[in-house]
Amino acid sequence: MVLDLGVVMDLMHNWSKMLPTVQPFYAVKCNPNPSLLGTLAALGSNFDCASKSEIETVLSLGVSPDRIIYANPCKSVSHINYAASVGVNVTTFDSKEEVEKIRKWHPKCQLILRIKPPQDSGARNSLGLKYGALLEEVPMLLQAAHDADLTVIGVSFHIGSGGADAKAYHGAIATAKSVFKMASKLDMQKMHVLDIGGGFSSGTEFGVAAVHVNDALEASFGNEEGITGG
Ligand SMILES: *Cc1c(COP(=O)(O)O)cnc(C)c1O
């Protein structure tokens, strides 16, 4: 197998051209090759880690912990303790049980509420179906986080990897916006992070997906400032 890091540089360049308002968080589970991760780190990518070992790998490259999101809505206590000990302070959740664990073991952690996107995008690997809160659960989950003195800084979703229909970004981003609105109605701190998950392929499909993402961001968040995408 040959790994051409020049291609990685071109892909990162293409990302910033096509998705200028979205900061990449590379999902380490896709390929944890250290040369690849090191190149991405040098080019300014952030990282999406699902476990303690993925966090360890990224930190060992000299990446600062504030460039890591611990994007696993169902974490074991020992991994939460590890994240707390190294200063990885952002994680996702989709249940009350997870809020309780974070409150107890990592109270400095900021939360991102993972929601289920509204439609099945026909993806091979539909991560959206496995994880994510339903819209009707959102007020209860926001309240649980609030009661635990934890701040929910934003919303995440995943439309599914591998051949997902890029039109699904429209429904998912609009639903995320409705969660931002619910939080402000409940008088909670203004949300400022929208994690659009993944589902991108290389080649022309990326261009098509980028157009859908940009259109959907404009439609739902166009007039808002300071939203950090991921
Ligand atoms: C796997 C994963 C990603 C990346 O998904 P791709 O479709 O491979 O781009 C992003 N976020 C989370 C939470 C994931 O689990």
From TrEMBL:
Keywords noted in UniProt: Lyase, Pyridoxal phosphate
Pathway membership, UniProt: Amine and polyamine biosynthesis; putrescine biosynthesis via L-ornithine pathway; putrescine from L-ornithine: step 1/1
InterPro entries assigned to the protein according to its UniProt record, in alphabetical order: De-COase2_CS (IPR022657), De-COase2_N (IPR022644), De-COase2_pyr-phos_BS (IPR022653), Orn/DAP/Arg_de-COase (IPR000183), Orn_de-COase (IPR002433), PLP-binding_barrel (IPR029066)
UniProt EC number: 4.1.1.17
Cofactor(s) essential for the protein: pyridoxal 5'-phosphate
PROSITE patterns, A to Z: ODR_DC_2_1 (PS00878), ODR_DC_2_2 (PS00879)
Top-rank taxon: Eukaryota
Catalytic reaction equation(s): L-ornithine + H(+) = putrescine + CO2
Orn/DAP/Arg decarboxylase 2 N-terminal domain location: 8-214
Subunit relationships: Homodimer. Only the dimer is catalytically active, as the active sites are constructed of residues from both monomers.
Family, per entry: Belongs to the Orn/Lys/Arg decarboxylase class-II family.
Name of the protein in its database record: ornithine decarboxylase
Native source species: Stylosanthes scabra
